[in-house]
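Form 7-S
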Amino acid sequence: MITTCVFDAYGTLFDVSAAAREAASEPGGEALAASWPSIAENWRRKQLEYSWLRAVTGEHTDFWTVTQDGLDWALEAEGIEDPALRERLLSLYWSLSAYPEVPEMLQALQAGGKSTAILSNGSPDMLGGAVHSAGLGDLLDDVLSVEAVGVFKPSAKVYDMVIQRFGVAKSHVLFVSSNGWDAASAASYGFVTAWVNRAGLPLDRLPGQPTYVLNDLAEIPGLAGL
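Output:
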């Protein structure tokens, strides 16, 4: 029986493309009209790649540094050198939009007596800003950051945090991520997992495989037994 539902944050609850998209729609953002999708994609890709490499090499830093480094790479790849734009994109990352189904989904879990939490590579202050901006604070029992263990996902030390916080068996946890590698790694760890595959991507070729593959988060309460 699922008692605890744990969510990755960026790309799962919060739309990581929102910062570039919103900046492009603002007055003065016309220069981003054509390039914002590739900036958003490269920003996210390099952010993840840098977190993996730091986990492997043991050169940990906070996720805010990784986020800035990823953006700098993405802007340079587009030939953009604009300090004001850089600062605007970074500021928007602190208030990313939640996907539209998120509040109702979390409300259903809460009403059904399920424990809910975020487990994220994000630093505590970044996560706090996103949760507050999206108005999700009252719908989450905890927000767990890798900063408590000093290594990024997919280290087992990160997934251990859920067991330590909630005192549940691995098989009673439904772990939800938009990252195929994260869902696969959590499955190898022993969680029931759901991969939110909004883009219709192929499964990652990894030892673990997600228990469920979803288009969005609307089905989560049903998977949790509600």
